[in-house]
Design brief:
Elements: H1 2-6, E1 21-28, H2 32-44, H3 52-66, E2 74-77, H4 91-97, E3 102-104, E4 122-124, E5 133-144, H5 160-172, H6 191-198, H7 201-207
Antiparallel strand pairs: 1-5, 2-5, 3-4
Helix pairs in contact: 2-3
Family: Belongs to the MMACHC family.
Cofactor: FAD; FMN
Keywords: Cobalamin, Cobalt, Cytoplasm, FAD, Flavoprotein, FMN, NADP, Oxidoreductase
Length: 212
């Protein structure tokens, strides 16, 4: 429900829908790279003019909309921003309230060791750890689900020590990706996928055999 999301945020971030409106958080798993991105690039090479992943996600969510021709569906992508430069939705908060992944934040650590430092939170998935991404929201404005029960996200980083380690690694060593393996994971990015996301966006086209 949209109301689960709005209830934990300041009004400036609220989604403009009734509280019991149905919404889905869209995640990409490690296999997205081989199962969705590479086939999409091979097929749509000449049409790729911006970020290939963003275009791939947009394509697949358009396909979802086509499956429901009689339904109004609003899509918000993770990269979209408002004129105020604020994001259109807070992806990690949405994933947490939907029960999809646990959003670990500074407030989840009782003995905070960081003083005045700015510490950003990070979502961890119980199966994929940090090897996943939140790609968007699908909203069904005409479908109300007042009796939907809110699932709690799985608290898979349950000790104080592990939470401190996670937030330390994410905030101060995020480039090496160690925070992604804070728990035992079932699947992670392939070496090819790691190389792709470690490459500056402007140079990723070359890795996929695209020219700009």
């Amino acid at each position: 429900q949209v109301g689960w999301y709005n209830a934990v945020l300041q009004p400036a971030f609220h989604l403009p829908y009734p509280d019991d409106t149905l919404a889905f958080v869209v995640l990409s798993t490690p296999s997205m790279f081989d199962k969705a991105l590479k086939p999409f690039v091979n097929k749509e090479q000449l049409k790729i003019i911006r970020d290939p992943v963003d275009q791939c996600v947009s394509h697949h969510l358009s396909c979802v909309k086509e499956k429901f021709p009689d339904q109004k569906i609003d899509v918000i992508f993770d990269y979209e921003i408002l004129p105020s430069r604020k994001p259109k939705f807070l992806a990690q908060t949405a994933a947490h309230v939907a029960g999809a992944a646990y959003y670990y934040q500074r407030k989840d650590v009782k003995l905070d060791p960081w003083g005045k430092k700015k510490i950003y939170g990070v979502c961890i998935h119980p199966k994929y750890g940090g090897w996943f991404a939140i790609r968007g929201l699908l909203l069904f404005p005409d479908i109300q689900v007042p009796f939907l029960e809110q699932p709690a996200p799985v608290d898979c980083v349950s000790t104080e020590e592990k939470r401190i380690e996670l937030l330390e690694q994410f905030n101060f060593h995020w480039q090496d990706g160690r925070y992604r393996d804070v728990i035992e994971v079932k699947e992670r990015y392939s070496e090819e996928q790691k190389a792709y996301f470690a490459t500056p966006p402007a140079e990723r086209f070359r890795l996929l055999g695209l020219t700009r």
